[in-house]
Amino acid sequence: MKDTLAKHSILHVFDPKKQILIQTDASKNGLGCWFFQEGKPVAYASKSLTDTETRYAQIEKELLAVVYACEKFKNYIYGYYFTINSDHKPLVSLVKKDVGEIHSTRLQRMKLKLSKYDFDIKFVPGKFLYVADLLSRNFINDPIVDIESSLKDLIHNINMSDPKRKMFEEETRKDVVLQTLVHLYEDGWPADKQRVPENARFFWQFKDKIFVEDGLVFYENRVLVPNNLIKGMLDALHKSHMGITKTLNKAKSTLFWPYMNRDIENMIFKCKKCEKFRSENKKHSLIPHPIPKRPFQKLGMDCLDYGGRSYLVGMDYYSKWIELHEITDKTASSIIKILNKFFSIHGIPQNIVSDNQPFNSYELRNFANNSNLDFIHSSPRYPRCNGLAEKAVHIAKSILKKISQSEGSLEEALLEYRSTPISGIGYSPAEMLMNRKLRTWIPIKDEDLEPKIPNNLKAVLERRQERILKNNNPVKPRRETHFEKGENVVYRNNGKWEPGRIVSKHDSPRSYLLQNENNRVIRRNTLHLRRSMHSPQIRLPEAEERTPIVSGNNNNPSLELADTYHTNSSPLPDSNNVEQDVESVRQPDREYTTRSGRISRKPNFYIPQ
Q: How far from 100 is each of 114, 142, 154, 223, CA to CA, in Å?
């Protein structure tokens, strides 16, 4: 057959005006190529591989056959566009890449040799490459110099010390998965994923980017880490305790192993130092308070200090009416006196939204029960929960600052505020509260002072609330986080994250009760909570025999310890009062909870005998 193909009657003269086609193929020990036009042969070529070339990976042999064909027929094809047919499908995508995107230096050198030719490569099944396949197996066995050895390495040297490189090479030889990849690289990947050994199927998606060089396996320009060295690489990556993103970026520049991202994330989540000093959580989207049906149904209330004096400020959720009164101190008795003045004018509201101290004291809770009033307490260290009261404090402080620099009085300033229309609503607090305008120093018509009910006021308030939510909610708010009873968490405390354990869900949205390492039950918003892989080290008191406070239906008492302990002779609280930090069992005149949730005890000389 070779003699027949070589006859002059078979070979045709090259015509540059006709389409140029070249078939190439590589076998275990040889290369073959066929140059033809319109199905008629113009030239043939074949060669044996050197001892070095026989150890090339299959993709390297196939590309070497392309290089050999181009060099052999360069007098015909140089300056013309031509097409190469190959039965090695990965070669198609490889040739289309830039040199910088090819991470094997040997393949880079071959690609550089082909850069002077204008060609395209197409995949043709091997059963149709009759001539090239024949020539690659029946090659001319002449000693030929390695055609690929003329160009030196351009890039790619792994910068590591000799001992570490030897360690990588030794562990690579021992690693079963990496040795499977070496064999697949040298012999060629199967056409079907199911024919790949099971331990190497993960790398099927990267088969065109994996190569072997100097005893190491690479994915692109990243070295594959043997399984026995992964732990050491993780420790080295996290030596400076960088965050997840920085550590991942650092690892992706040089290293690769299966599920590397997951391993790095788990390592950093388990690091106690990183957990303690992690940045704050992303803010939640706002949860608006429902618009009340009538004035003074719901109030926001808080205390403020200005100019060495203390004030109690309250704002109506419906009318935005502000009450501002000076108080002698921030004790419960002083607050109750001012509240009685409020209620004598406007009536008793159904709800008052406030922070915990002093509004969560024993005395104020008794006052609320007697007045048929409910206090809604915000999560400690989360003032956004009572945003209207914080806004009232801001307005009140602004009024106090301005009257301190002028001759006006507090009452005059409050009159002006209450009679001024609110932006986005169009009515003043007085109109919304009393259905009439207030007479001030500004001239006004008599008919304007007559009572008039605002039109569709609740709808106006709801539209205003929607606009506020749209303008103030983050573009990408934090996803809602839910915790289970007994789950290990860390909570934000003085700029650091401290360990704790979830006790129960609080009645308020995004609020949980948790037990900290000091064996106290505290309340926190989910903004100040994160999941943790570490269990808190609960420190039990040693002074006397203690009984933990647990909920009635709890099967694991250790998860429901309260923030204080009681002797066996002390009464146990009702299980429904756990979310109130077990205030009901304390001595009301002796102990109280600060705004941050800390338990404070009055000295003996403050306690009435």
A: 14, 35, 10, 17
Which residue matches tokens 């914080």?
390
Q: What's the rounded mean pLDDT across residues 420-444?
A: 87
pLDDT of residue 152: 40
- Whole-number average pLDDT of the chain: 80
Asked if residues 587 and 606 have their Cβ atoms less than 8 Å apart, the reply is no
pLDDT-derived band at 35, boundaries 50, 70, 90: very high
CB neighbours of 464 closer than 8 A, spacing ≥ 6?
A: 424, 425
d(CA 469, CA 91): 56
Q: What is the pLDDT of residues 443-480, one digit of tens each?
A: 888 887 888 888 888 888 888 888 887 777 776 767 78
Report CA Rg, the chain: 40
Burial-class residue 253 by CB neighbours within 10 Å (0-12, 13-18, 19+).
Answer: exposed
**CB of 202 within 8 A of CB of 248?**
no
User: How confident is the model over 155-181, as a mean pLDDT?
Assistant: 83
State the SS3 of 435-478.
CCCCCCCCCCCCHHHCCCCCCCHHHHHHHHHHHHHHHHCCCCCC
Q: Which two tokens stand for residue 468?
A: 């506020």
Residue-level pLDDT at 609:
44
Is the link from the previous residue into 190 a cis peptide, with omega within 30 of 0?
Answer: no
CB 27 within 8 A of CB 137: yes
What gap in Å lies between CA 491 and CA 529, rounded to an integer? 5
Q: Minimal CA–CA distance to 121: which of 88, 84, 94, 93? A: 84
CB 563 within 8 A of CB 574: no
Cβ atoms of 488 and 517 closer than 8 Å: no
The C-alpha atoms of residue 530 and residue 543 are separated, in whole angstroms, by: 33
| Closest to 485 in 3D by CA, of 539, 552, 556, 538 | 556
Length of the chain: 609
Long-range contacts (CB closer than 8 Å, 24 or more residues apart) made by 155-161 = 155/105, 155/108, 156/103, 156/105, 156/108, 156/213, 156/221, 158/216, 158/223
Question: Side by side, which strands form the sheet with 81-86?
Answer: 40-48, 30-37, 21-26, 81-86, 118-123
Residue 1 has what pLDDT?
58
pLDDT band at 67 (very low <50, low <70, confident <90, very high): very high
Residues 6+ apart with CB under 8 A from 35: 20, 21, 22, 41, 42, 43, 44, 45, 69, 73, 76
Q: Which residue has the tokens 């801001």?
A: 394
pLDDT of residue 594: 64
Q: Write the single-letter amino acid at 380.
A: P
Residue 371 pLDDT > 60, yes or no?
yes
